[in-house]
Specification:
globular, 7 helices, single chain, alpha/beta, P-loop_NTPase, Rossmann fold, AAA+_ATPase, seven-stranded mixed beta sheet, ABC_transporter-like_ATP-bd, ABC transporter ATP-binding protein, binds adenosine-5'-triphosphate, four-stranded antiparallel beta sheet, ATP-binding
């Protein structure tokens, strides 16, 4: 870890509008900030303030209307759909509120899915997926289908899936929003490990103050504008 951490993502004057009823509605206005490599950032704010929109821009799921999103020197806002898909597959792991697992696939097969886009052969894919499932404590549930797993276990499969390609950036949209307090705590413990042990940069959207408390820093979105950074004194950044 370096004394002056690298910037993982730099947003420069980013704006985003949607067209509704023939009119452009601005959801994000002049968003300008850096996310340091190895950071664990929580994004909070009222419903409709643009948190998921911002997360989707950072993750390359959507494109801004204006501004630049610089990741490792590349402005991902300028990539075409195919290059953006390649960039996402190699760089970003996704964790969603409702897990988004394929119901007809086992846990192992779900985790293997992102590896279909890589050069790994079937045996290697299985080995990588099994390792990721071991890391999240599900070695004994690999052959279970999502409907045979609890919500917390399904989210752990989703974390293994986010991890299996070894991305630098993990984006999590309300990762504990569908879970009871105990399962939510276990998921937050896991995110903490991904950050501190594996050095993953994590950006997490959450409504839950208890979840946000686990992040190193918090930013609030309000009417499309971002607050200054609040450092969480109780969390220790992995790059410190
Ligand atoms: N594809 C879209 N087309 C039109 N409007 C959209 C689209 N996606 C989001 N919006 C609008 O943009 C605004 C911000 O939405 P977003 O989902 O980013 O908010 P949020 O802060 O994540 O909300 P929540 O906490 O309720 O999930 C909302 O007013 C929403 O209706």
């Amino acid at each position: 870890m370096t004394a002056s951490p690298e910037v993982a993502v730099a947003l420069r004057h980013v704006s985003k509008s949607y067209t509704r009823g023939g009119q452009a509605v601005e959801v994000l206005t002049d968003i300008d900030f850096d996310i340091q490599s190895g950071d664990f950032l929580a994004l909070m704010g009222p419903s409709g303030s643009g948190k998921s929109t911002l997360l989707n821009l950072i993750a390359g799921i959507d494109k801004p209307t204006g501004g630049q999103i610089l990741v490792g020197g590349t402005d991902i806002a300028t990539l075409d759909e195919a290059d953006l898909a390649d960039w996402r597959a190699g760089n970003v792991g996704f964790i969603f509120q409702f897990y988004n697992l394929m119901p007809v696939l086992t846990g192992l097969e779900n985790v293997e899915l992102p590896l279909m886009l890589t050069r790994l052969n079937r045996r290697e894919r299985r080995e990588h997926a099994a390792l990721a499932l071991e890391m999240v404590g599900l070695a004994d549930r690999m052959q279970h289908y999502p409907n045979e797993l609890s919500g917390g276990q399904q989210q752990r499969v989703a974390i293994a899936r986010a991890l299996v390609t070894d991305p630098t950036l993990i984006v999590a949209d309300e990762p504990t929003g569908d879970l009871d307090r105990k399962s939510a705590g276990e998921i937050l413990d896991l995110l903490d490990r991904l950050n501190t042990e594996l050095g993953k940069t994590i950006i997490m959207v959450t409504h839950d103050a208890r979840a946000a408390e686990r992040a190193h820093a918090i930013r609030h979105l309000e009417k499309g504008e971002l607050s200054s950074l609040e450092i969480n004194p109780r969390a220790t950044p992995s790059h410190a």
